């Protein structure tokens, strides 16, 4: 798991900049014989695609994926699967000021500090556009774990939280916010519109549940399932916090309140009476739903001017024009799902390798 | 970063069970020429050692470390450094019931589901006793990053939060809770005593700050400094949540409220007006203090009986006798520091390798 | 170094099949600020390109490389460099018989045994066409090690050995065999012509010398410079043997005959009186030229019919039509150079990371 | 596979110096439930142990192994297995001259060039004593691959080659040379005695055959079974060449002469009519015996004085007293077997992980 490669056994290497000719991923270690075509990948990219509602960036990218290797007669061959997505709607002139001054909260300054210079067009490599490569790779991963059902949804935008009692999975795809609570979705329209019009931006919380993960996946101590999920989620642009199960709320429970009591289940497997642990104990899946929650900060690229410095170190002020998501958390939901799928596919193969 | 090895360039491999003859770590990739003796490691182990107050487990382990390789005439040679700590106070008979029934919230069931059987004595490999190996390895890592100052402290036990205004670093080592607020420390005595007497346990929140991390350490995209920290922290026993900088609170800020505005600094480097980001942007250090916060659940091993099943799948009830920390979060503070040091040492070497 | 990724710090991931739409490599970990354009890569691909003489396969591939990421304004940015080469001269119908019967000596049967099926067109992933990706990646690696000069040449075809006394580096590029001895090159024309006309093929030995490698690169014990070179060279198609320095001949020397005696050198560095060791001791470069020699078997795809079985297990006979190199060893020379450059670039960064 | 860790899925990390208190290995990734005790490891260490005949070093090391973790009630638990061997017969005063002057052919100078200084006692980390850790780890690996039978033997000492027609596996353990030809073994007694008395040393060639390796183990392109074997063998002290199957001799064969023709076998699997390939094609096992051959140079530490320089760069002469093997190739046979077992165990788990 180093630099631009993710995973141990089911691995992908991502490449590409926001305004380069293309971006992509090379998936390596995928088992052979899995049915795969562009049609299996495209729907997931479409979910993440920008410009589908007024609540996301207006950049128009069709995000058409091409499979360049690793598939023969409709099935994976076990060799590397190269996926490529061409960029078609670059508008680099918007970034003239970004090239000289640093957007606070963005990676601009850090990249310059590390590399000495950077590709400023659209944020270059630090752009969330890279997440398209993840979503494409994850579509392949999904074929490796047909026993698992994954869904991610927003529980909060700008501090406005859904009503858990109103949660309805069927609602998630019926609004532009991946929101399971229709009343919250309605409120969020106003919230996001207001932020956008004010030249501001909003943060969000995304929750992701994976059902069907067999007890046993995961591995102590430095390939813990929750450790890998935390690392994976924190690698997503704008994520600042990760919780497994009850997360920070668990720190406020007493031992007996946090215990996921067990009773004999119908099929020899335990029947858990609660899931505070989020489906993972000791880094290993317990067979309960795996639950992850991530916090995303508000978009750093905003129209409201902010104090900053330029590349020479002089005082400056920056207002980011370009085209940006007023709430990056919205389009993060498919990416969170993708990372969940990628981690689980990797752990399925790792488990099978060690345990047989 | 796989299984029982952590790190890419500065790596350690940990081994050992709670009630085995010994535990240890092999540190690999350490630069040569660094002064190192057991005396450099022992104080850090002493901070983590059990039995130092009535608020931790009463197991009496001296935790004496031996260096078995990799050091010649008081300096590291660049070859692997083998560190060993003997276990002396095993009392395995306490675990007879744990061998047959599963402690809810603990790794017992998950290990059996994965491996088919397990070493139940003291939790075997899943015991927090393994963290002694991390602390020893981290003492070596500290020698690699003399420019960095790390401190971890508790901000919360059982939901009782410190007063940030009363924070005094000097207080951290003056109470048995690594608490920077003396008033909170006084309250926590009562809280933890009460939990212990009630056969219950408490959760906690640990915060860790690293000052002196140069801008530039870290790497996009799957070796992000925050991604690695998240994975590292989540690998610690009982951790259920990780935040960088403002963490989940950032999700409730507007873009301009979350921006860490920059002004020209005295030495050509930026002067940041805030640190919502926790010192990391785009996965790369900005030169500000790196701030991480982790949530620890209450100890799963409690005296209060809990419903469970046994290895045959039959209904059972379990009350864990043994010797346990009433609040694992307390002794986690030195471990959180250790993981911070280990991640930073690794990234210093990675940065130097790629950038020169 | 796993599956389709090579290297630890300077890494590349290769992808693509012989008759797919394209092949390529993603180079990761390259330092920033190195001048790089397609013009820096193309000449190396041209050296390896098929169809340049009657002694190589007649497949006509222009092997034009495109840089899709990781370069901005003519310099590497430190982010992944995606390189793509389109296949244009596929003639897959030639492989109808290969799809059903196994070519002895080729990977056909082994791939089927592993994956259950395979892409038979042109050998799919097992084709030496993949080495174009290595050569492209190595062109990037060369920019990382400007202090090193690498040259590979053939010392032997079909058992006909060059005259070491006649070795002239200037001759290497003057004949189609990368042969430093013009008299041997003249003889080889007849040899290879005869083999081609007979529907047979020939093996070869390639030697590679890297000058300018500083003492200290390399690392005990499982990242030894010679260990990495051996693994790298053996990963090239048709390679069956690797020697460092005197190689197998060293096994016939006495201790004092094998010793590379040292005298004080002009600049404080040792002056070696011999180089039996091939520039590596204990896995670490000594500052002498690094010398590697590899043996390549004769091309397995030959016109002469050979006994085999088909996919059903029935007896068959196979004569491979297609277009093949009568001596794969010839075009291997640029690939051996490439692997040398890739290993050395990786070790330069590893050394810099650990030692500073 | 980095630095002091070997393997991807079945991994071990080795540590220890020649004259330190102990050396050892941590085996990670071993499947659970495999019977293992010290008694399963000790016989393999005894085969490699020094001082068992007058043809090896007279250092007396009992090489008693202790298992410190990872085994419970006689079976592996799936967690790391820590193996430790104490050094008892260090005699460091023999190395006073080695500390100041460099032995030509040895790692002394290279280590100083890399690390700035080194532990000179007995060669420190560069001593072949480290191979005890490999042999111990390999004893664990053997339990993972019960289907495979491995034997290594010498085919050549000091240029004196065995008679292949006289090869008898039963002879291998009946002489101190692991020699399958009793006549050659008798000759080698005189050869090695003479070299020892002359203060010289001899090289050797070791061949290793693994039977029972199923078709399919291995993986293109950078985890090829032969690539991994080559890297593994070259990591053994004093190895300068590696061949798979016919090796360099294959370079002198014509295509049809090198083809391993196939006929229908009794059980649906192919019956191969030859094994020039050494059981590997395209990096993947074919089901035939896997054959590797390695060349070992003569021991670099010899009594005969050799010209060298000292640490200050001044001219010197060195004659190594200490206790050394007159032919390191002899005791390398168990180490070559060990690396074969370690590579195969790793590939079994990798194959199972990807293919299921």
TrEMBL record, chains A, B, C, D:
Pathway assigned to this chain's UniProt record: Metabolic intermediate biosynthesis; chorismate biosynthesis; chorismate from D-erythrose 4-phosphate and phosphoenolpyruvate: step 7/7
Entry annotated with the keyword Amino-acid biosynthesis: yes
Keywords carried by this UniProt record: Amino-acid biosynthesis, Aromatic amino acid biosynthesis, FAD, Flavoprotein, FMN, Lyase, NADP
Residues annotated to bind FMN: 125-127, 237-238, 282, 297-301, 323
Cofactor(s) listed in the protein's UniProt record: FMNH2
Catalytic reaction equation(s): 5-O-(1-carboxyvinyl)-3-phosphoshikimate = chorismate + phosphate
Enzyme Commission numbers on file: 4.2.3.5
Cofactor detail note: Reduced FMN (FMNH(2)).
CDD domains: Chorismate_synthase
Family matches, as Gene3D superfamilies: Chorismate synthase AroC
GO molecular function, one term: chorismate synthase activity
Enzyme class (EC, first level): lyase
Residues that bind NADP(+): 48, 54
InterPro entries xref list: Chorismate_synth (IPR000453), Chorismate_synth_AroC_sf (IPR035904), Chorismate_synthase_CS (IPR020541)
Pfam families associated with the record: Chorismate_synt
UniProt keyword Lyase present: yes
Family matches, as HAMAP family: Chorismate_synth
Recorded family membership: Belongs to the chorismate synthase family.
Function of the molecule: This reaction introduces a second double bond into the aromatic ring system.
PANTHER family associated with the record: CHORISMATE SYNTHASE (PTHR21085:SF0)
Oligomer and partners: Homotetramer.
Protein name, entry field: Chorismate synthase
UniProt source species: Sphingomonas arantia
């Amino acid at each position: 798991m180093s630099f631009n490669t993710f995973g141990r056994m089911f691995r992908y290497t991502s490449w590409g900049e926001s305004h380069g000719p293309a971006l992509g991923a090379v998936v390596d270690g995928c088992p052979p014989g899995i049915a795969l075509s562009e049609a299996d990948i495209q729907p997931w990219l479409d979910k993440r695609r920008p410009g589908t509602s007024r609540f996301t960036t207006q950049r128009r990218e069709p995000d058409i994926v091409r499979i360049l290797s690793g598939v023969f007669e409709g099935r994976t061959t076990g060799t590397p699967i190269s996926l490529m997505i061409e960029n078609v709607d670059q508008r680099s002139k918007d970034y003239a000021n970004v090239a000289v001054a640093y957007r606070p909260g963005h990676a601009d300054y850090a990249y310059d500090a590390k590399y000495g210079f950077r590709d400023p067009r659209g944020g270059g490599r630090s752009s969330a556009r890279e997440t398209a490569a993840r979503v494409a790779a994850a579509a392949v991963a999904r074929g490796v774990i047909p026993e698992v059902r994954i869904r991610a949804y927003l529980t909060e935008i700008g501090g406005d939280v859904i009503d858990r009692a109103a949660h309805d999975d069927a609602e998630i795809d019926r609004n532009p916010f991946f929101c399971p609570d229709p009343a919250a979705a309605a409120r969020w329209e106003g919230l996001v519109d207001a932020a956008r019009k004010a030249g501001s931006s909003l943060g969000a919380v995304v929750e992701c549940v994976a059902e069907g993960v067999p007890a046993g996946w995961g591995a102590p101590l430095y390939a813990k399932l929750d450790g890998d999920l935390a690392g994976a989620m924190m690698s997503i642009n704008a994520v600042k916090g990760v919780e497994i199960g009850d997360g920070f709320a668990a720190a406020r429970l007493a031992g007996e309140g946090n215990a996921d009591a067990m009773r004999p289940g119908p099929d020899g497997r335990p029947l858990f009476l609660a899931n505070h642990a989020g489906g993972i104990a000791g880094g290993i899946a317990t067979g309960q739903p795996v639950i992850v929650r991530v916090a995303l900060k508000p978009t750093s690229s905003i129209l409201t001017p902010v104090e900053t410095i330029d590349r020479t170190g002089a005082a400056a002020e920056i207002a980011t024009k370009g085209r940006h998501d007023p709430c990056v958390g919205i389009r993060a939901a498919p990416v969170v799902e993708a990372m969940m799928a990628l981690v689980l596919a990797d752990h399925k193969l790792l488990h099978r390798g060690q345990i047989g």
